[in-house]
Amino acid sequence: MDLRKLAQDAEGAIEPPVQLTPREQVWSIRYESPEGQRHEGSVTSRIMTGDERFKASRITSDLLGRPWTQVPPQAQIHAIALGVIAVQLRHVPEWLLTSVQSDEELALELLATCRGHDTRWFRRDIEKGEGLPQERRIFIDPIGIPPAPPVESESPYAGSRSGGST
Questions:
Q1: 146 — pLDDT class (breaks 50, 70, 90)
Q2: How many CB atoms lie within 10 A of CB 119?
Q3: Rounded to two decimals, what is the model's pTM?
Q4: Which candidate in 38, 47, 87, 100 could, as Cys together with 107 as Cys, close a disulfide (CB 3.0–4.6 Å)?
Q5: Residue 145: how many CA atoms within 13 Å on its side-chain side?
């Protein structure tokens, strides 16, 4: 055993481990209602499981009560926000559950924060130089299938930019 070598190695800088986003986070919320009432509280955000994601989608669908295409986009987004809030957030104060139903801005702010947590958890936001090297997390490769050759078009419109009839 070389004690001098061990002593030299011990003096080197130790790189701190990369801090990954926790599955659960507690958030502080301060809110002033349109009537001027001030509320303060906290909620716990927990990244949804696959089943919970479907549950949030079912809540969204139930809230809309009609086909998706018959609902204005703003109402669609508000319903999505309420579905996510109902499932992803835990220990939600009653005033917050009531307020998000009528205050779209509050609901959308919470949705954006939930989506941000989701993005960080699944490491979709990591760029090179931000701790972890940018690496693919998901690999899907065909097995035993040769790549398809390039397709050459035999269409009389192959050279046409408009793609329409002449």
A1: confident
A2: 13
A3: 0.69
A4: 100
A5: 7
